[in-house]
Write a structure and sequence with these properties.
- This protein is α/β, with parallel strands linked by helices.
- The chain contains 8 helices and 14 strands.
- The strands form 3 sheets. Strands 4, 5, 6, 7, 10, 11, 12, 13 and 14 form a 9-stranded mixed sheet that branches. The chain has a 3-stranded antiparallel sheet with strand order 1-2-3.
- Strand 5 (77-84), helix 3 and strand 6 form a beta-alpha-beta unit.
- The radius of gyration is 17 Å and the shape is globular.
């Protein structure tokens, strides 16, 4: 994912010049802040995990929109809503939608995933409206992990247990009756995420990803289906890299190149 400079007015992202990064082997170019949270592996795999070939997709906490745009690139019949509570990130998301040719298939919504149902509805997040809901919520429960000195990065990486539960509640509420909800989080958050998923969704499926073969999982993808009664499934883990070197594993490399979806 090569980064190139992007000449832009600083009022889009305060005190920063955004970069312009290539994704899916150059099929997408994404403007994003040079510092703070930057989309990468998780965003690509999350967007490539969407199984529904049509209908509406909601990217909850979309940031600059990378995951949603990956999903749009893989599934030409879907439309997407990119929802975030940061207007600066949504400004970049709108730019990325237009620059990648998705203006007729995507819109943004300034919305907080933890807000009340009435507030979310007023912001454009409608209940029972999306066949797929994807999210890469803040990384660690409050008090865990390393808090960045940069305010924006710290806010993007931390929330409490109740906050994570509200994210899942919102995602499930926005999904259609048979819709899929997909989250990605660090592996240490799996217990909290499973509790929130199993309270609202069925057919919950867990995919652990490890840095290399034989190592413990570092992140988990979790999918649930609204109104399903199917039991929990824990899949065999997959490595991100090979045993040696910096190259990606055969399961991951073609997804990052945009050659195939992330099937699990």
């Amino acid at each position: 994912m090569n980064a190139m400079s992007l000449d832009h007015d600083d009022n889009i992202v305060k005190h920063q010049t955004p970069t312009r990064d290539a994704f899916l082997g150059g099929r997408l170019f994404i403007a994003q802040p040079r510092k703070g949270f930057r989309a990468g592996l998780d965003s690509v795999l999350l967007g490539a995990s969407a199984r529904r070939a049509d209908g509406s997709l909601l990217d909850l906490g979309s940031g600059v929109g990378t995951a949603a745009l990956v999903a749009l690139a893989h599934n030409p019949a879907i439309v997407a809503t990119l929802a975030d509570n940061d207007p600066e990130m949504l400004a970049l998301a709108e730019q990325n939608i237009a620059a990648n040719g998705f203006a007729t298939r995507a819109r943004t919504a300034l919305a907080d995933a933890t807000a009340s149902a009435a507030v979310r509805r007023a912001a454009g997040l409608l209940p029972n409206a999306h066949a797929t809901v994807i999210a890469n919520p803040p990384f660690f429960a409050t008090g865990r992990g390393t808090v960045s000195g940069e305010r924006g990065r710290a806010a993007a990486r931390h929330m409490d247990v109740a906050g994570l539960d509200r994210w899942v509640r919102t995602a499930a509420g926005c999904g259609t009756a048979d819709g899929e909800v997909i989250f990605v989080l660090p592996a240490e958050s799996l217990g909290l995420l499973l509790a929130a998923f199993e309270a609202r969704l069925g057919a919950v499926t867990v995919l652990p990803l490890s840095p290399r073969p034989g190592l413990p999982a570092s992140r988990v993808f979790v999918r649930g289906i609204k109104q399903s009664r199917a039991p929990l499934t824990v899949l065999a883990g997959r490595p991100i890299h090979g045993a040696e070197g910096n190259g990606f594993s055969p399961e991951i490399e073609p997804v990052l190149r945009g050659e195939q979806r992330f099937v699990w």
